[in-house]
Amino acid sequence: MRLSTSSLVVLLALSAGADRTTEAGEASITDPNAECTPYYYAPVSDHSSDFPAIWQHPEEILSNDSEGQAKFDAMSASIPNIPPKGTLNGDFSGMNYPASDPDCWWTDSKCITPKLAGLQPDVANVPEPRTLGYGFDDGPNCSHNAFYAYLESRNQKATMFYIGSNVMDWPLEAQRGVADGHQICVHTWSHRYMTAATNVGAFAELWYTMKAIKLVCGVTPTCWRPPYGDVDDRIRYIATQLGLQTVIWKYDSNDWSVGTNGVTRQTVQDNYDHLINLAQNGTFDTVGAIILTHELNNYTMQTAMDNYDKLTEVFDNILPIAVALNNTTPYVEKNVTSPTFAEYTSGTTTTSSDSNADAAPASDPESGGESESARSSGANGKTSTASKGAASNSGEGSGQRAQGSSGARTRAVGLGGAGAGVALLLGGLVAGGMRVLFGV
Ligand SMILES: *[C@@H]1O[C@H](CO)[C@@H](O)[C@H](O)[C@H]1NC(C)=O
Ligand SMILES: *[C@@H]1O[C@H](CO)[C@@H](O)[C@H](O)[C@H]1NC(C)=O
Ligand SMILES: *[C@@H]1O[C@H](CO)[C@@H](O)[C@H](O)[C@H]1NC(C)=O
Ligand SMILES: *[C@@H]1O[C@H](CO)[C@@H](O)[C@H](O)[C@H]1NC(C)=O
Ligand SMILES: *[C@@H]1O[C@H](CO)[C@@H](O)[C@H](O)[C@H]1NC(C)=O
Ligand SMILES: *[C@@H]1O[C@H](CO)[C@@H](O)[C@H](O)[C@H]1NC(C)=O
C-alpha cells in the first residue's frame, strides 16, 4: 500500500477532534475510521530503533540489544535439539514427522502435555467448573473501542493476547487493555508459525513483544499463546525460559477464518452454539473451558458481543485466564495484581492499588487525574491497579508531550520532522492490510 502525503493529511483530518496523545482521549473516539487513522506517539517513536521492523519476523536479536543477547545466550545451549518445522507461513508439506509425535507438536496432534521433562503442560482449559476462560487474540485492533466499551459496560474482563507489532502501531489501544483491567499476554511479534522459526528467531518473536508491552503498558506478561496453536517442546522451552506459560484452547470459534476453507458466519455461530450446548449438558461441570476468539475485525468483535449474554446464561463464571487460575500476579511486576477467583466472582473484578501506585498518575498531569481514573473504574467503583500502571508508564513520555503540549501540535511535529513517525504511520496502515492475509 502506498500513500501520498495528501492522503496522510486527509487521514489525519478524520481524527482531528480527539486527543490522540492519551489513552483516555483515544478511547473516546467512536468512529472506526478515525480510530484506525495512525497517530504519532513519542514513547514508541523514540524507541523504534530498539525493536525489529513492524510485522517482519525478527531473524536475529538486534545488534546492540545486549540484554536480549545475554538472555538468549543463557538459554541457548540447553534448548532441545528439535529442528525447525516447515515454513513461517505454515507450509508443512513434505515433512516426515513420526506418528509418535516426539515433540508434542500441537499442530500435529493437539498435544498439550510436553514430552520434554521439566516443562509445564499448556493451559487448554480452566480448572474451575462451569467457568469460561475468556480471551481474544490478535489485538490491539485499532477499532476496538466499541467492543472494549461493551466489555466495560458489562464489567467483564478478559485475557488479551497482543501482537507486538500491533502494540507498537496502536499503543494507546494497548494501554486501554490494561486500563480496562484486562490481562495482557504475548501473541508474538509478527504472527508466524513459531515451530518454523530458528531458536533465535523464536526467542526474538517473544522477547520483543514482551519489551513492547512493557514499554507501552508498563507491565511484562507471563503468558503467551502461539499463533495457529503452533507450538512444540522446543518453542515451549524457549517460552518457559522467558517466563511465559503457554495458553492454548480446546474449543475454536473459527471466527478469524470466515470466507476461507468454506467457513461461513453460520459455521462460526454453530461453533459458539456447540460450546453453549456443551455447557448446558454438563460437559463443563467438573472442568471449565477455553474458546478461541479474536479481536481481529468488526465481525469477530461483534460476534463476541452478540454471543455474550448467551454465554453468561450457561456459564456460572466468565473470567480472564489468570483469574480462573487464581494467579494474582500475572506480570513480572509483582506490584500489579489481579483478583483471586473468589474475589472476581464476588464482584471485585479489579484489585485496589497499593500506595506506590497511587502516586504514579500525579507525575503525568496530562493523562493521569480524574478523567482516566474515573473512566477505568468498574461498575462497582473499584479502581484498577493496572490502570495506574499504564498511567505511570505513559508518564515516561510526558516530557515529550509537554514539549508538544497540544495533541494536534504533537502530531504535526511528528509527521513533519521525524522519519520514524512516518514509518510508524505507514507500518500501521500496512499492518491493517496484512492481518487480513494472516488470519488467526
Ligand atoms: C541501538 O542502536 C540504535 C541505532 O542503531 C539506537 O537508536 C538505539 O538507542 C540503540 N539501543 C540500545 C538499547 O542501545
Ligand atoms: C454433551 O453433548 C456432547 C455432544 O453432543 C456429548 O458428546 C457429551 O457426551 C454430552 N455430555 C453429557 C455430560 O451429557
Ligand atoms: C481492525 O479491525 C478493522 C475492522 O473493524 C479492520 O479493517 C482492520 O484491519 C483491523 N486492524 C488491525 C490492525 O487488525
Ligand atoms: C460494527 O460495525 C457496525 C456498523 O458500523 C457498528 O454499528 C458496530 O458498533 C460495530 N461493532 C463493533 C464491535 O465495532
Ligand atoms: C482458587 O482459590 C480458591 C480459594 O480462594 C479455591 O477454592 C479454588 O479451588 C482455587 N482455584 C484454583 C484453580 O486454584
Ligand atoms: C511497579 O514497579 C515497577 C518497578 O518494578 C514500577 O516501575 C511501576 O511504576 C510500579 N507500578 C505500580 C502500579 O506501582
UniProtKB/TrEMBL annotation:
Keywords for the protein's UniProt record, in alphabetical order: Carbohydrate metabolism, Cell membrane, Cell wall, Cell wall biogenesis/degradation, Chitin degradation, Cobalt, Glycoprotein, GPI-anchor, Hydrolase, Lipoprotein, Membrane, Metal-binding, Polysaccharide degradation, Secreted, Signal, Transmembrane, Transmembrane helix
Q: Which cofactor does it need?
A: Co(2+)
- A Gene Ontology molecular-function term? chitin deacetylase activity
Where in the cell is the protein located? Cell membrane; Secreted, Cell wall
Residue numbers spanned by region Disordered: 343-410
* Compositional bias segments (type: Low complexity): 343-379, 399-410
Q: What is its main location?
A: membrane
Question: What does UniProt give as GO cellular component?
Answer: plasma membrane; side of membrane
TM regions (residue ranges):
415-438
Residue ranges with Polar residues bias? 380-393
CDD domains cross-referenced by the UniProt entry: CE4_MrCDA_like (cd10952)
**Range of residues in the leader sequence:** 1-18
Indicate how the chain sits in the lipid bilayer. Answer: Lipid-anchor; GPI-anchor
Per its record, how is this protein called by name? chitin deacetylase
Q: Which organism is it from?
A: Roridomyces roridus
